[in-house]
Amino acid sequence: MEQEKQLSVWENCLSIISQIIEPQKFDTWFRPIKPVSLVGSALTLEVPSDFFREYLDNVYLELVKATIKRVIGSDAELIYKVRPVRQSSAMRFPAAPGPTPVNKTISVNTYPTQGNPGPFVYPGLKRIQINPRLNPVYCFDNLVEGECNKMGITAGQSIARAPGKTPFNPLFLFGGPGLGKTHIAQAIGISIKDKYPDLTVLYVTGNEFKTQYMDAVTVRNKLTDFLAFYMKIDVLIVDDIQDMVGTATQNAFFNVFNHLHEHGKQLIFTSDRAPADLQNFEERLLSRLKWGLSVQLERPSFVTRLSMLKNRSFREGVNISDDVLEYLANKITSNFRELEGALISLIAHATLSHKAITVDLVSQVTQNLVGEVKSDLSIDKIQKTVCDYFNISRDSLLSRSRKRNIVQARQIAMYECRNLMNCSLSTIGAELGGKDHATVLHACTTVSDLMSTDKTFRQYVADIEKMLVPVRQ
Known about the structure:
The chain is an alpha/beta fold. It has 20 helices and 10 strands. It has helices spanning 2-17, 23-29, 50-59, 61-72, 150-161, 181-195, 206-217, 222-230, 247-262, 283-289, 302-315, 322-331, 336-353, 359-367, 379-390, 394-398, 404-421, 425-431, 437-453, 455-468; strands at residues 34-39, 42-47, 77-82, 105-110, 124-129, 171-174, 201-205, 235-239, 266-271, 293-296. It has a 5-stranded parallel beta sheet, with helices on both faces. It has a 3-stranded mixed beta sheet with strand order 1-2-3. Strands 4-5 form a two-stranded antiparallel ribbon. The model is unreliable at 85-97, 115-124 and 370-374 (pLDDT under 50).
């Protein structure tokens, strides 16, 4: 009977709340809550994780408090209970719970395969529906923003608001594997489909475009259909464009690019290298890839890695202590993909072996992970690498010199000690010339700011990081 009472009270609360907030947000933030007990005027609610509770407190606390007071009375109390890991089933939690994006049906010119049409033969019209091939999980809400990807996310959101009408056309995202290029590119497409459902969006890889082209040239007149198809696209996303090798393929893509760009359509490309470093690409195509905005995605900092782990563990419906997440963020520093894979492996191992998720368990699970960073990094190594790169002595680096090149090298060394090793500000200061923590904090902030505005400076930092922790291909 008591259980029926708490269920009844909470259903009344949900009925009120559902009339106030949007249905998607209601399903996301209130459906997973379970009423545990009602003792006097105290209602206990079970939530999936601490992150979930914190979000409710930050966004919906006043609404929930007002609602339970309305249902229970002015003396109502709200108590949270976080669902234990072993008692909670794995909860898939994409931030965009809507349906997979779908394009409208469009008309494409087609030609008969038995021969070229004569001057008085009109092509046929074929009604087709293009699958945008967008994964709803790859949305902006599921992206963790940091200095490593801030410019890419900001540019992507600008494009999503006005596709084809910003200076960022084309947008060229480049960087090492697992840094989020595909995620950002698809997030732009998903956001565009949400704001402009009538636009036709297509995600394709460079290798797929090449294969489609080669297939088209083997059938008479199919190449004409192939080009007609691509010229109907409003937003074209080409992932791993470095794989689009071959003069004939690039010639076809050159024509597609020109047509779409001239008609104000949005183009988005990703690559594992900068446009200037693409091999075996025609010069005229390379020049067009540089027309818009090129953004390099960097390796995530410790703070960004930790935020990503918290975000993903919440989406999995698992409550993991900060100590464990911090250990994992320090252990794997290369990219988001390996970090996410390690977290999923950890959750699976804990679930299957019925073990609590502890630092010891993380250590065991990550020992044999492919791609784990086994780094011999030290502050001394960072100092030596920075000195070698800028051709200065260690004594100069640790001195009180205010020469611009010395100050710049010293600030980068402080930044890397913080970013790659997560050393405390006081430790970094003590090891780099006896500086106080405020000086170190200022140095880290200065480096972050310069990386977002100065391309040459950003390259300095990227080169030094590659020397310290080479990115595996």
